[in-house]
Amino acid sequence: MSDLPDTYFKPAAGKLGQSIYENPANGLDPRLQFFIEISFASFEIDDETVSPILRVDNIAVEARSWTALENQVFEFPWAPKPGSVEAAILLFGAHNPADVTKLTFGSIDGGKVRVSFETEVDFEIEADRDDLEQVKMAFDLTLEVEPLRVSTSLEKRCEGDESKITSAVSGLVDLDDYGAIEKAPGGFVFSPK
């Protein structure tokens, strides 16, 4: 385990993303799925200024909206077992794998949600960094909630018709926690209330 300088990996901001995700080719029906993204304050390593990002993807839990995460604890198997989350720190031009097996969500306040979790990041596999090796990190921070994005495949299946998309999404998501559908760059979104 590496002993890091205090200036390394200091969280600067965090967001909770959400989307309607599906993968028909793999037999995965549409579902509500979340991700967490944490950006770190820039720091210098090897005479280079870096701005890493931690991304925790494929958070598929029993929830029909982002508000259902409040005060919930979710556990996941180790990757790459079915039901695991994918997590990595983007740094040194590589996705450095991180293990996340538990997420503890706290209260919602002002449209933001609190989360805490621990992870261990391996910089030796992808980035081939012996100086960092494996790094343990712990987080307890408030996340900005991003709009709910509609998958491109669902949008195409509904022929871009907002009422058809809303109808399809309403079977998966509690739309009382979201505003009306809106056209946004890259597709359609429902903003959180």
Q: What does the model show?
A:
- By secondary structure, this protein is mainly beta.
- It is 8% helix and 53% strand.
- It has two helices and 13 strands.
- It has helices at 152-157, 162-170; strands at residues 11-23, 28-40, 43-45, 48-50, 53-59, 73-75, 86-91, 94-99, 102-109, 112-122, 134-150, 178-184, 187-192.
- The strands form two sheets. It has a seven-stranded mixed barrel.
- The mean pLDDT is 93.
Shape label: elongated
Mean pLDDT across every amino acid position? 93
The helix/strand order is EEEEEEEEEEEHHEE
Strand content: over 45%
User: What kind of sheet is the major sheet?
Assistant: 7 strands, mixed, barrel
The secondary-structure class comes to mainly beta
Give the terminus-to-terminus CA distance.
42 Å
Order of strands, main sheet, comes to 1-2-5-7-8-10-11
Rg estimate, integer Å: 18 Å
How many helices does DSSP assign? 2
Helix content: under 10%
Low confidence ranges: none
Number of strands: 13
